[in-house]
Hints:
Elements: E1 10-17, E2 33-37, E3 40-45, E4 49-53, H1 69-78, E5 80-83, E6 94-98, E7 109-113, E8 116-121, E9 124-132, E10 154-157, H2 162-177, E11 183-195, H3 201-210, E12 215-219, E13 222-226, E14 229-234, E15 237-248, H4 253-264, H5 267-284, E16 288-293, E17 298-301, E18 305-316, H6 322-329, E19 337-338, H7 340-350, E20 361-366, E21 371-375, E22 379-382, E23 396-407, H8 413-431
Parallel strand pairs: 1-5
Antiparallel strand pairs: 1-9, 2-3, 2-12, 3-8, 4-7, 6-7, 6-20, 8-9, 10-11, 11-19, 11-23, 12-13, 13-22, 14-15, 14-21, 15-18, 16-18, 17-18, 20-21, 22-23
Helix pairs in contact: 1-6, 2-8, 3-8
EC number: 5.4.4.2
GO molecular function: isochorismate synthase activity
Pfam families: Chorismate_bind
Amino acid sequence: MTSSRRPPQLVVETREIEHVDDLLAYASPDEPLAWLRRGDGIVGIGTVGGYENGPGMPPGIDRHSIPAPADAWRHLAAMAEVDDPVGLPGTGLVAFGTLVFDKRSSGTSRLIVPQVVVGRHRGRSWVTRIRSTAAELEAPVVRPRPYGPHWSGTLGPGTLDPAGYQAAVRAAVDAIRAGELDKVVLARDLVGTIPAGADLRRLVRALAHDYPDTWTFAVDGLIGASPETLVTASRGVVTARVLAGTIPRGTDAHDDTAASTSLAHSDKDLGEHRFAVQSVLDALGPHTRHLRADPEPFTLKLPNLWHLATDVAGDLADHASSLDLVAALHPTAAVAGTPTDAALDAIRRLEPFDRGRYAGPVGWVDGDGNGEWAIALRCAQIGAGPARRYAEYSDTIPVVAHAGAGIVAASDPESELLETRVKFRPIVDALA
């Protein structure tokens, strides 16, 4: 008797291995795939499949006819045959993802299924091998690679220079005071270059070292260290961390305490934060039960600034995957504004560039829909995709970085410009 079941498209096998000291050493120097926090996480090698929606689609394919990432992933995962006796976060079938900020963007959203995943979680390490039954791909060698030489990059004013940014802030404040919206997050850009052939793991490593409590990521040339969890889904538990409201760290202990206290009592920042928290509660509510948030924000200390932060948690009430929750949440008020549609219209009007994947979701998802997703902040896009594509044509590779600030009625253009300078510091320092 023959089965009518279609053969699996992906065959996945996870096995525990001896302790891995440096996950990043296993990643590709020019196309790193990584998701790291305090040394734990996952790195990917090679590509066996995934999802793509962007301007580079083959002729005749309408971008709007392509399924949503969550639906496409469900279909792919349902056809996979998984052997995973380890059962830790990040084992089994995994895809790394980076999605555009704005659905009107000319950028590309991608889910990348690697051929090999090397991971570590709370002292245990593993390797996952993924192969396609539809294509014979040479299995990549799973071994650490020496890091290439140190290098440095440069960043300078982009399309929206400091004067232009302050003008955009003033226009946003006018719109808010006119009642068009309550809050909008405006970004500005820096552009520059890095040497062709640079080992991009150096950039990832610098960010992971300097900002160990952030999500350090490298997906499709987007590299950064985000402090903001968009959503985590793990075995029925949903969590998120909302950041909105920022002040630079003080120059000494006394100034630093004063800065934290000032932020905690700032009516402007507390109001901005409330908008962001409520947008997350509204989005997660239909998918969860027992949803709860801290009654008051706490001040989160990072090496270069303080944030107002609120943790949100609940139990999954339906069969939503982490990608479904990402779709429900994004864009939050913390990176777009309130109301969402009015804020997006203001961003499109006042920002003279396409954000691409900046401030969009970045993270990973597994075959059961669990995953960890952050907001792509404190990051830079290296080239328009994998950097090695540029090495044949130039001695340098283009880089673009963005940073933004939440604008409300009480915003001061000069202060908001200063906030973007502080937020640029992690990626500027790491590139230098």
